[in-house]
Amino acid sequence: MKNKDTAKQEMIDFYLLDIIRKNLTIRSLSMMLSDMVSTLESDKELRTYTGHFQEIQTLLECILDESNSNDKDLDKTRIHFEQLIASRKAVAHEI
Predict the structure, then answer these.
(1) pLDDT classification of 46: cutoffs 50, 70, 90
(2) Full-prediction pTM beyond 0.90?
(3) Neighbours of 67 (CB within 10 A)
(4) Sign of CA dihedral 87, 81, 5, 17
(5) Residues in Cβ contact with 86 at an 8 Å cutoff, skipping those fewer than 6 apart
(6) Bigger pLDDT: 46 or 85?
(7) How far apart are CA 31 and CA 68, in angstroms?
(8) d(CA 61, CA 53)
(9) DSSP per residue over 18-72, as a string?
(10) What is the C-alpha to C-alpha distance for residues 56 and 47, in angstroms, rounded to an integer?
């Protein structure tokens, strides 16, 4: 039977992995949309019809920047949790 700390750790790991998965999905979709916009941007008829490719490209770049920032924040959070777990194990081992 799992103790309470192990269950909490597994739940935290699950949520962090879920966030990472969603972040990767956002990044992948943004890059695919960016490629599509770049392809469409070269079509003069479409460009004159919509005229908003630069705004879309800027928005996609912002999304990718946010996704990269999320990765850094997730790494910091993961390292912090690993340090907490290591210090708890060290204290428990001393007792």
Answers:
(1) low
(2) no
(3) 19
(4) negative
(5) none
(6) 85
(7) 12
(8) 12
(9) HHHHHHHHHHHHHHHHHHHHHHHHT-HHHHHHH--HHHHHHHHHHHHHHHHHHHH
(10) 12
